[in-house]
Task: structure prediction
Amino acid sequence: MAGNDRLRAALESLRRHLDQDLFPLEIGDAAADRRVLKELRGQLDDYLLPRLAAIDAPLLAVVGGSTGAGKSTLVNSLVGTTVTEPGVLRPTTLAPTLVCNPADSPWFTSPVILPGLARVTGGAIGGAAGGGRGEPGTLRIAPVEALPPGLALLDAPDIDSVVTANRELAAQLLAAADLWLFVTTAARYADEVPWSFLRLARERSTALAVILQRVPDEAREPVAADLARLLADNGLAGTPLFAVPELALPSERARLPAAVVQPIATWLADLSVDAKARAEVVRRTLTGALDSLATRVPDLADRVERQRAGIAELRAIADKAYDVAMSAFDEGMRDGRLLRGEVLARWQDFVGTGDLMRSLESRIGWLRDRIAAAFRGRPAPDRELRVALESGVESLIRSTADGAAERAVEAWLALPAGRDVLDRSGVAVSGRLGRASADLPRRAGEAVRAWQGHVLDLVRSEGADRRTLARAASFGVNSLGVLIMLAVFSTTGGITGIELGIAGGTGVLSQKLLEAVFGDQAVRTLTQEAREDLRRRVRALLDEERARFSSLVEGLGPATETAARLREAAKAVQERGDL
Result:
């Protein structure tokens, strides 16, 4: 009993891990992954957990098979009354009917087994007890005195039904059975669909009997022999095999003569009254179902890891897009593009570039004095140059963020999982996600202005040294700050012609002036600190932009430890003792 308690605890732990949405995205064969998950959940809920909780509960025999095999007629014939509706229209069995002795009704009407199906109780169809087919999604319970206690028959939908829900329900019910009564016909016993189920019964060691219906008298022996051969070839030698002759019944609701089904009825009755035989059937099927978890659960764990890897790939795509954007911004700082256009014009207004360039190498002292005088007398160009720089840096941030968003969307659209995420999020691909956020210009402007303020603080701190105080004071903090900002972008490489000379001269000039005030080492330190501070601020902006993508997959799919926990639970089940 203690061993069973441990086994139940392991199965309950396994079931809890299966409650997650393990396969939300179209990664790999997601449809197959979800089907495997659904089947595993179903067998735990419908069979393994309830059977372990009540090992001596009545035996459930599910009558399954192909369309038109005569399952409903067989059930009615075995119990001697019409409890399930046969007919020529397909599918006939819209809702499954479970026939049991009234003494066993409390077990089957409780939601312990097949908890996902609502219960409907009814007796013989058209009889005094009422009844009927039952609605789809329900399990009709039909108590019948003729069926001995300890055994129930469940008439399942067709395994090859044209209705997908019926096929899935048939598979679910067979997975919940202690015993399969698999019905086929002399004309269709070699079809592949039934054999796919029979091989599944073999793999899971499910207790099984095969009933061959509508066998012409002249073909009885050769057909039965051939079916027995096929069973042996598929690892099912020794499976009980019953042959029912082809008979002309007077109506659709007519039952087979009692003598025809007597061998089957006797075999089932012997099971119901022989506790040892019944326990052996239960133990065989239960053990087979548990053993199957040793391969099914690790396989599911592999599928879970594939889902996690697919989601991680989407995150990595977004990460790469914004890493590329950061690299593009770094290149924009180095290639001189920020020293073009408006910045160049404002620099020329600031110091009169043409004359100064000619005097740079030989007259740096005179140059410093002239610029200092210009700084003292013309504060406006100082501010205009800062504004031009601010605008240029903001534009560079926006363009790199736009490029990252476009690359990320295009890469996601190239993957089924990415398209799935975009579809389920309701984000219009032609909308904002493919471009930078609407409020990025505001945030970029704030970040650049904060950076400029930080540069001015650096200049104030460096200029407070008494050795540089006088020289720094002659220029002013704002003007020196602008020169530091220019130095951050002074390495050219992306411009040509006359602009190259002007931009290069701009960088050299600002560098010489700063060195004259602070010294070359201090200038290198100030420039590096200013550059890294700007990079940190831009990185933070791009991280916020990237979060628009990462948030779409946040919380999707299985938890990190799910695959490992599934394997641990499978191992615990495998290490169980005897039942």
